[in-house]
Design a protein that fits this description.
The protein has 17 helices and eight strands. The protein is of the alpha/beta class. An eight-stranded parallel sheet has the order 1-2-3-4-5-6-7-8. Helix 10 links the parallel strand 5 and strand 6. The protein binds adenine (ADE) and zinc ion.
């Protein structure tokens, strides 16, 4: 099964590029930028990755991102993720970035997007790995700040497929960002939002109804509301589930308690993703494999999860069909 999962052509739909910054690269970039990290070594930093909830993770995650100053730093971080993704047979990836994490430190929007985008172009050329960028607003900040970020993105609009919403969920409901999402829709961005990770099922409703999202990121707390589960099944609004993240951030006690298999069996469009792989102990293959083992997923379940991700991706028809074909051919050859 490990071999089957490794070779499976995969699509990833929930990965924060800042969350792919491995400690080794973080230290290397910190050194060349003459920034001192409050940890003596890579090992000491890794030991700090013991989280009690989402906020305890976010505090360390924002601190980690503070080493990124120059275009080359954003390139190197993104390229490292893309090499890893390619090694795990990721064929298409939709990547979140958090401009405010950088612009609030005085880094130009242009530096951030240029470095990330140059790596994406290189991965398309070198690996045939296709990708898009999703710009997330930090929900612990104001709607006005999100609006300002949307304004800053305007010259780079062709490089961004969708807007998203991330950071501290509880107390920052989707409705807080209703107006900025409305503006984003008018400017032809697609929309997604983190909802129902730590926050209640009602935030998932709000994201669907008020923000008009095409996918829900996480969404695992939907099961607290039967009517919502029915809505998600009927509408096939996808959930980008991140199993190892949910364990590290204590959304579930352990992976055997995770509701991914139940959601899949109910017929929801569930996908598997890595979220912040440098912090949560695994990239996409490790997420698939850990679920296969803890939840006794069958080969059919795994193929369904991979198909769901192709279905849920923001792709032109031709690329989507090519990915379905590649998956079918792989399954037949096994
Ligand atoms: N930013 C990075 N990872 C996140 C997560 N799991 N939830 C909310 N915001 C995030
Ligand atoms: Zn996330």
């Amino acid at each position: 099964m490990q071999e089957f999962i490794q070779g499976l052509p995969k699509v990833e739909l929930h990965i924060h590029i800042e969350g792919s910054l491995e400690p080794e690269l973080m230290f290397r970039i910190a050194e060349r930028n003459k920034i001192s990290l409050p940890y003596a070594s890579v090992d000491e930093l890794r030991q700090a990755y013991d989280f009690s909830n989402l906020q305890s993770f976010l505090d360390i995650y924002y601190q980690g991102a503070s080493v990124l100053l120059y275009e080359q730093d954003f390139y190197d971080m993104t390229w490292a993720y893309l090499e890893k993704a390619h090694a795990q047979n990721v064929r298409h990836t939709e990547i979140f970035f958090d401009p405010q994490t950088h612009t609030d430190r005085g880094i130009e929007f242009e530096i951030v997007i240029s470095g990330i985008h140059r790596a994406l172009t290189d991965a398309q050329q070198t690996f045939g790995l296709s990708s898009s960028l999703i710009m997330c607003f930090l929900r612990h900040l104001s709607e006005a700040a999100a609006q300002q970020t949307l304004d800053q993105a305007r010259p780079y609009k062709e490089k961004i497929i969708a807007v998203g919403l991330d950071s501290s969920e509880q107390g920052n409901p989707p409705e807080k960002f209703k107006n900025v999402f409305e503006t984003a829709h008018k400017e032809d961005y697609l929309a997604v939002a983190h909802a129902g990770e730590e926050g209640p099922a009602d935030y998932i409703y709000q994201a669907i109804e008020l923000l008009q999202v095409k996918r829900i990121d996480h969404g695992v707390r939907c099961m607290e509301d039967e009517a919502l589960v029915r809505l998600l099944r009927e509408s096939q609004i996808p959930l980008t589930v991140c199993p190892l993240s949910n364990i590290k951030l204590r959304v579930f006690d352990d992976l055997t308690q995770h509701n991914l298999k139940q959601l899949l069996d109910y017929g929801l469009c569930v996908t598997i993703n890595s979220d912040d792989p440098a912090y949560f102990g695994g990239y996409i293959s490790e997420n698939y494999l850990a679920c296969e083992q803890a939840l006794s997923l069958t080969k059919e379940d795994i193929v369904m999860l991979a198909k769901n991700a192709i279905k849920a991706a923001f792709l032109p028809d031709a690329r989507r069909e090519a990915l379905y074909l590649e998956l079918d051919q792989y399954v037949q050859s096994c």
